[in-house]
Amino acid sequence: MAKIIYIASDGTTTEVEAQNGISVMQAAVNNGVAGIVAECGGACSCATCHVHVDPAWVGKLPEPQGTEKDMLEFVIDPQPTSRLSCQLRITDELDGLVVRTPISQY
C-alpha cells in the first residue's frame, strides 16, 4: 500500500492509502477525491483524470507513452508535470506521491 496525496486547486489536501496495482485515478475515485472526474473509467480516452505531478516525483515515474502522451495534448493548461492519473499504477515506490488537480476539473 502507498499513501497518495491529492491537492485540490484551492489547496485542500486529501491523503489516501491505496492498494498496489490500481491507478492513482482509481484510488481517487474510490475515495471521493474532488477534481478526478474519470469519465472514461480509466480507458485513457477523456483526460478528465489530468493531474500535475509534484516536481519532486516526476523523475520517479515512467515517461508518458502512446495514447497518454497524445491525450495530454488536449488537456486544459498542460504543464511539463502533467499526467493522466489513470496511467499511473501504484507501487510501494510511490508512497507519498503528491499530485495536484487542475482548477479546470472543478
Helix content bin: 10-25%
Q: Could you name the CATH topology?
A: Ubiquitin-like (UB roll)
Order of helix and strand elements from N to C terminus: EEHEHHEE
The residue ranges in which pLDDT falls below 50 over 5 or more consecutive positions are: none
Total beta strands: 5
Distance between the termini: 28 Å
Explain this structure to me?
The structure is a single chain. Helices cover about 15% and strands about 20% of the residues. With about 110 residues, the chain is of the alpha+beta class. It has a single domain (about 1-105), classed as Beta-grasp domain (Ubiquitin-like (UB roll)). A 5-stranded mixed β-sheet has the order 2-1-5-3-4. Strand 1 and strand 2 form a beta hairpin. The protein is globular and about 30 Å long. It starts with a strand and ends in a 6-residue tail after the last strand.
Features:
Ubiquitin-like (UB roll), 22% strand, alpha+beta, 16% helix, 106 residues, 5 strands, 3 helices, single chain, five-stranded mixed beta sheet
Secondary-structure blueprint:
Layout: E1 2-7, E2 13-18, H1 24-30, E3 50-53, H2 55-58, H3 66-71, E4 82-84, E5 97-100
Parallel strand pairs: 1-5
Antiparallel strand pairs: 1-2, 3-4, 3-5
Task: Offer a quick outline of the entry.
By secondary structure, the chain is of the alpha+beta class.
